[in-house]
Amino acid sequence: MSVTTQEKNEFRAEVSAWMKENKPADPGFLLPQSFMEVGSEQQLEFLREWQHKMWTAGYLGMAWPKQYGGCGVEPVFQSIADTEMRRQGVPIAFNIIGLGWAGPLINDIGTEEEKAKYLKGILSGEDIWCQGFSEPDNGSDLGNAQIRAVRDGDDYVVNGTKIWTTMGNYAKYMILLARTNPNTERKYDGLSYFLSPMKIPGVDPRPIQKITGEYGFTETFFTDARIPADCLMGEEGQGWKIAMQTLQYERGAEAGSAGGLAFVRIIIDDMIEELHDVTRDGESVLKDPAMRNQLVNFIMEEKAISLGDRRAAVNALTTEYPFSLPLSHKLRYTEYSRRMRQFAINAQGAAGSLYVGDDEARQGGFWQRAYFNSFSATIGGGTSQVQNNIVGEHILGLPK
Prior knowledge:
The protein is of the alpha+beta class. The chain folds into three domains: 5-126, Acyl-CoA dehydrogenase/oxidase, N-terminal domain (Butyryl-Coa Dehydrogenase, subunit A, domain 1, Orthogonal Bundle), CATH 1.10.540; 130-250, Butyryl-CoA Dehydrogenase, subunit A, domain 2 (Beta Barrel); 268-395, Butyryl-CoA Dehydrogenase, subunit A, domain 3. Helix content is 42%, strand content 14%. The strands form three sheets. Strands 1-4-5-8 form a four-stranded mixed sheet. Strands 2-3-7-6 form a four-stranded antiparallel sheet, with no helix packed on it. A two-stranded antiparallel sheet has the order 9-10. The radius of gyration is 22 Å and the shape is globular.
């Protein structure tokens, strides 16, 4: 059943009013700029409470089935709610790997038992999820994953290491890609996919400190960890296919997310506002012709990305290269975001070298921290180099 314009407008007004009334006050400590920077129990509990509050109000998992904690309404309502979250700058939803990747996957291809077991906990924030794809020696070469899972009775015994495990030290579950058969002709055919518990003997996630001074990632060691066999998703050997579907959610090419903000929204208007009182040779940097020219280029690029996302939803406008805009969005947006933040730092002049904790840093070092944090988005879900290959091979039809 189609949703009328009046229904959309009424719902938008409802969400807007709720967000204004319930947006948390500044907690007095540094909040993560994305789900990849949750590094303390203090941050975690603040964000868990916020996510639970949004879900209880009915603004997360709106299109997910009611029997599994969702609202069972049309996806357009979730899009409206997410737009209002961005517009009003509410805190991020920390459990993004569950809300945006694991949850949609389980919703789409999981068994009824898996849906009943996992989905509600993802929405409420009770059950945190992490991703076990990358390995120390096989970062972008996902198909060459070497962590082993050997069947032993009712369990799989897992040995090996995963890295860049976002919130691995807090997670209850991991979407794990492991090699169950090392002797297949094609390396992809030996991989299997698990909805693996994390709080079991033999699983040791060790936090990694980033260049920002923050945490958020771990390196996760599996040493004779016994995972129940019923944690296998699908059949043995189907791991590559399921992993590729997961990456479609991660890269934004597939719908089904439960909603929520993965990142603090930083737009070109924020940068222009920041530069208003920055001077060079006694005048505002915004009066410099070269600076203004670069700013206009950023404005056009940001607008093009926004319009491209809207265009992607209109099938008639994407027939020549189906999925071209969703598949290229991650590459376009993350690289734009990194360059824009770097520009903001450069425009500060000498002050651009100051960081969080320095009393003289502009906006408390917000832009410097944002710039360093932007690199994780250009790596997660496939590096920009890998994304260029995807666009070339799968959209333009170029040879490998």
